[in-house]
Design goal:
alpha/beta; Ribosomal Protein L24e, Chain: T; Rossmann fold; 2 domains; 7-stranded mixed sheet; 9 helices; 14 strands; 29% helix; globular
Length: 298
Amino acid sequence: MQKSAAFGLFAAIPFPPGAKSSAIAADVNRSAAKAGPLKPPAHGSIPVAFLVSEGAVLIDFCGPWEVFGNVMLPGRQDPPFHLYTVSETLKPLRAGGMQIVPDYTIETAPAPKVIVIPAQNNDSEAVLQWIRKSTKSSDVTMSVCTGAFLLAQTGLLAAKAATTHHASYVELATKFPDVHVMRGVRFVEDGNLASSGGLSSGIDLAFRVVERYYGREVATQTAFDMEYQGPGWMDRESNAVYAKARTSANGHPLCSVCSMAVDVQSAPTSVYKDQTYYFCSRDHKAQFDAAPAKFIAD
């Protein structure tokens, strides 16, 4: 008889066997948290490149765009940040139903000092190479939400601390076991790399970048002008509600890859060692079927 694995699975395994746990990464993360001030240029604006492609998640890049775009410095006419979009081509693309025409291609874009990588679909080698090359001279290369997967594909996050959307902690740790995946934080900084949690977390990371360039007073004033009341940019631990893995309940299973709630009647399933596992999508079922031991406790 098959046994259901719907109850208690994720309480037992915050990360899959072999992946870097949050405990292992704690020392790395504490060190990364000491990221110091950044020096703005004496003249001109700080170039900020927003890497976009088909399917880019709007809030992931529009949230940080608004933060950088609303920074004002007393007695200064030039904007502190120069914002532009970059894509593999200038072909119009759809993001959240909106049509966007990129400002530059990866071949023609000005060298950025800040790079924003939202969740998106394009992971071509040309895009990965642009990230690698541009990060060599960037002050901050930041991913938002599952944009962390694109950043990890470059190899730049190897042995670094990072975070992502809370439903993707396990998947990121499984796909990239050399990345120290952190749970329950709004953002993580490690050298000139930074990553934020899901969606709105990118706004907090953008405020943090503003603070590193121009100080807390400027960042606080920007938040006030935007009527933004979130404290996450001052306290990255404020995402602690996501630190503990969700636990399935009888009749209400979670996806065995990402821990999202699934419909028991329609969810794809797999049977492994006489236990039934549920999935939010056929893609996650395929990932599980390829290496089930990575997603379950011994």
